[in-house]
Design a protein that fits this description.
Four copies of one chain form a homotetramer. Chain A is an alpha/beta fold. Chain A has two domains: about 80 residues, ACT domain (Alpha-Beta Plaits, 2-Layer Sandwich), CATH 3.30.70; about 200 residues, Formyl transferase, N-terminal domain (Rossmann fold, 3-Layer(aba) Sandwich), CATH 3.40.50.170. Helix content of chain A is about 30%, strand content about 30%. The first copy, chain A, contains eight helices and 13 strands. In chain A, the strands form three sheets. A seven-stranded mixed β-sheet of chain A has the order 7-6-5-8-9-10-11, sandwiched between helices. Chain A has a four-stranded antiparallel β-sheet with strand order 2-3-1-4, with helices on one face. In chain A, a hairpin with a 4-residue loop joins β2 and β3. In chain A, α1 runs antiparallel to α2, α3 packs parallel to α8 and α7 crosses α8. The two termini of chain A are about 20 Å apart. Chains in contact: A-B, A-C, A-D, B-C, B-D, C-D. At the A-B interface, β11 and β13 of A face β11 and β13 of B. Chains A, B, C, D: Pathway: Purine metabolism; IMP biosynthesis via de novo pathway; formate from 10-formyl-5,6,7,8-tetrahydrofolate: step 1/1.
Chain lengths: ~290, ~290, ~290, ~290
């Protein structure tokens, strides 16, 4: 591929019916779009067909994007299709929520700074002031919004205002340590990712590494998942795991888990923003990526 | 090490008190025993000290084993020690319980046949006749003991008779698919290993791969653990894990899991028979091995 | 999917040109074939497009397979396409070559016996008699063809006769321990898989575990690759790896490696027979599978 | 363990002779030192016995450290022992060398900042100015020492001056991208760790990810090793590995490798400063740690 050529991603899902794929590929062909990477999945349980097509325009001038959208869109309705067409180079706008632990935030900011994550970060929001200096070093606006049991609704409203204002595509809870309200979960459906510090569904709720210690497990892990109103029950995107043994005290499990957490979360964000990740009821489809 | 030299393992636990290690090493020194591999662990929670010492006798003639036993044993009492001294070459006698699935049994028998597990297998017991031919190929007595809800006590009694008769050191439930009675669990305390086809405590009980499918996890695993009267709650010895994705149907998870199960179980057996594995309440200590 | 429905795989490669995908999907559509799993890869270096499409016929009666073949084939020529269409249920005929080590053979035969590998095994060939009893247990013809420096050409000719006679689709060197002649390698191009007991290109040639011991590596692995005339240089299909430490003597590395070898080889066979694996110069493309 | 109690590490090696262990344990016992974690290894090839004992003083007042040193030291000579006794809480002084890539440096600095690595970092040295701002953020002196073919000796002399001045215990080449002179390697023998971005001995020298791409390997890794005068041949401490496939271009391999590199390097540093790591000719012994 010529590195200067624009690339696009057409992704979505439809009813599991003959013809939808012919429609996708046919529209691309007619618009002189060369599809070089295709992944599909057909879920028999729910009779939905999931697709992700990466392509580049190889004709003269510019891709007639609107024509492609309307031609595909008009006929896609018959297949009950939900779809998204985007220029691959456009970064998603990601708002990050944190508390005091900095390992996941550090990791995301570093990846962002070296171009390993195609995102913009218009805001970092925290209920603590601790990570302000870090945000500033990366020139990212930091919003300190303290929270108490009484002020929770107002604080969430303030968070929501920022999300709205910056027009966020994705919200990442990078060890935020606060439970979002049902209403907030609903508003962020399919576009909020949390990292939980255990191999779900093994150890839900608080202090999972302490739970793991008590249980004497020989593997500990982390789970990145879409946020849902049922705590630690949202659709799983990625999971990481590391071997441990009897010498791991809770503190050592916490330390060990940091790497697993940040890798699982970074992978989940990457898969999401590259449109490799699809919600499918309480599960996800994640097409292969790097 | 001269391959012909006899090696021994002294393993056990004691109160966490100064002097026990000096006692162990001192006794070995006086008996001209060269300790070449030592691992210890001190559990602060329960104030017990766990040790495993591999050594060889380097003096003239034979090791005065009885003298070593009595000298060590007499003084070890003061440290509330539980200990075991054995010739490394002596194989444990292992009785294997199976149902119809053969992958774990195949694996154990193959390892045994090529000398990768230092065990004897005096009996394979099953509630089904299916694996008789396999047992015979390896020249191992196969006991077909069918079970029904009504005959469960008698069947277990028959199993127990065999275990007694062959003087089994260890009982391995290699996908046996039957729940042992509380009484049987008690009698086999610390010397029965089960393989559960999930990453405990994630998916207890029946059909864990179906549970994993419903939950949409991205990792599936297996857990080898000591049998306890609380089903799938026994002390964990080893756990294995493999990545999966949305394309794994329950059948494919079952297929994927077979390798994880057999590897986790084989490792657990090896650690146990090499005296690397110690019960510690509802947890285990597993010292490094191969 | 209805389990009784026939499924097919259309796989191959073509020039990286606009239109080939439209051709594939269009032909399938016209023949009422529902493509439920698609993977593609475009190699910029060599300008080849690789594709694998799994589909089922959903029309009335039977798929007009010949019509599909001719419609697709005629137009595929313009894209310099190499392709294969097959009924997914048809097993490949696999001839296995072994020496004395049985772990890889045991593994393949067991997977075959439980239906985990969709293959037939019309012949096992060995330069030693040792594994005859195992082959017989599985009711597979065993050919003992001893080899010496002098008789090598004749022995290879005898092997080739068997491969021809049984019309083998694939030849698997399951720790065969003999180097095939250049001529034999050429004849088996793209349809012979070897398992090498190291992480290539790390330790080529003989006794790789001893090499690994001398070097003090902390990971050992195995590599399944297509056979080429340059020893241990063939296109890599799968690689497995396990952590080791300073306590691993060469013997222990050998023992550890057995599991890695058999898993890497079994995976490579599965990917090959499911048409997920493509030769691409001295490399391979392996589309996701289970 | 009472968190306030001082802990110590006695580590080293001796001839493989009866009596050395009795000496170690006996001296500790007499000085009222409770050894709670012991690991030993006996290398038959070179007839050396390696040991690491963690203990705490449980008597009244303070440990008579000098008495322990002299009693042990005097008698240890007869066993040709090389040993080190240290207070566990004393941090090693680590000088870090970098070029322009920041991922390993970021990782080490972050771990240091949260107390995950018990080290001091008195100096960061680079042949480029790029990472100065990062060093300053962590309040660590940054020395920019440019290098050309002509100025290499002077630059190395300047590096050596800094190492001497800060009395460095360890030098870490965190993707330094420069080859040290033989003389420098000699001076840093056993106390300089490099991270190489491949699974040694697979791809030595420059651009290992490009080599891996050309070879089509299915796993890429990183190797942390002690620096020796033979480039990329030093004793291996840790290795990490990640699966890749045909879609990984050299750029994507580089990106994938970053995580493997930083984890392997951080682990190696931790093992070294906790005295778990021993040089043994061209290999290492690494006792279990977290």
């Amino acid at each position: 591929m010529n590195a200067n050529e624009k690339t696009y991603i057409l992704s979505g899902s439809s009813a599991s019916k003959l013809g939808v794929l012919d429609l996708i590929i046919g529209c691309l062909y007619k618009h002189e779009c060369y599809a070089y990477e295709i992944h599909t999945f057909d879920d028999d349980d729910v009779e939905r067909f999931f697709f992700r097509v990466e392509f580049r325009y190889i004709g003269a001038g510019e891709l007639a994007e609107e024509s492609l959208r309307s031609q595909f869109g008009d006929r896609a309705e018959a297949f009950d299709a939900v779809w998204d067409l985007r220029d691959s180079s456009t970064p998603d706008k990601v708002v990050i929520l944190v508390s005091k632990y900095d390992h996941c935030l550090q990791d995301i900011l570093h990846r962002h700074s070296i171009g390993a994550l195609n995102i913009e970060i218009p805001a970092i929001i925290s209920n603590h002031p601790d990570l302000k200096r870090l945000a500033e070093w990366y020139n990212i606006p930091y919003y300190h919004l303290p929270i108490t049991a009484e002020t929770k609704p107002q604080q969430e409203a303030a968070i929501w205002d920022i999300i709205q204002k910056v027009d966020a595509d994705l919200v990442v809870l990078a060890r935020y340590m606060q439970v979002l309200s049902d209403d907030m979960c609903k508003k962020l459906h399919g576009r909020a990712i949390n990292i939980h510090h255990s191999l779900l569904p093994g150890f839900k709720g608080a202090k999972p590494y302490h739970q793991a210690y008590e249980k004497g497990v020989k593997l500990v892990g982390a789970t990145a998942h879409y946020v849902s109103k049922d705590l630690d029950e949202g659709p799983i995107i990625t999971q990481g795991v590391e071997p441990v043994d009897h010498t791991y005290t809770p503190d050592r499990l916490v330390a060990k888990g940091r790497d697993t957490e940040r890798l699982a979360l970074a992978k989940a964000i990457k898969m999401h923003v590259e449109r490799r990740c699809f919600l499918n009821g309480n599960k996800t489809i994640v097409f292969p990526g790097h």
